[in-house]
Amino acid sequence: MIYDVIVVGGGHNGLISASYLAKAGKSVLLIESSDHLGGASISYQAFPEHDVRLSRYSYLVSLLPNKIIKDLGIKFTTKSREISSYTPDFRDGKDCGLLVERNVGKLSEQSFNKLTGSDDEFLAWKKFYGEVESIAKVIAPTLLEPLPSVKNLKSKLGNDPLWNEICEQPIGQVVRERFTDDLVRGVVLTDALIGTFTSVDDLQANICFLYHLIGNGTGEWKVPVGGMGALAEELERVAISSGVKIIGNTKIDKVIPDVNGVEIESAAGNNYAGRDLIWAASPTALASALGSRKPKLRDGSQIKINMLLKKLPELKSGVDPKLAFAGTFHINERLSDLENAFNVAKQNILPDVIPAEVYCHSITDPSIVGKSGLHTLTLFALHTPAEIFENERAANTNLVTERILSGFNQCLVEPIETVLAENSDGSKCLEVKTPLDLEEEIFLPRGNIFHADLTMPFATDESMNGEWGAQSGTPHIYLGGAGAQRGGGVSGIPAHNAAMALLSKS
Ligand SMILES: Cc1cc2nc3c(=O)[nH]c(=O)nc-3n(C[C@H](O)[C@H](O)[C@H](O)COP(=O)(O)OP(=O)(O)OC[C@H]3O[C@@H](n4cnc5c(N)ncnc54)[C@H](O)[C@@H]3O)c2cc1C
Question: Is 506 a residue whose pLDDT tops 80?
Answer without folding.
Answer: no
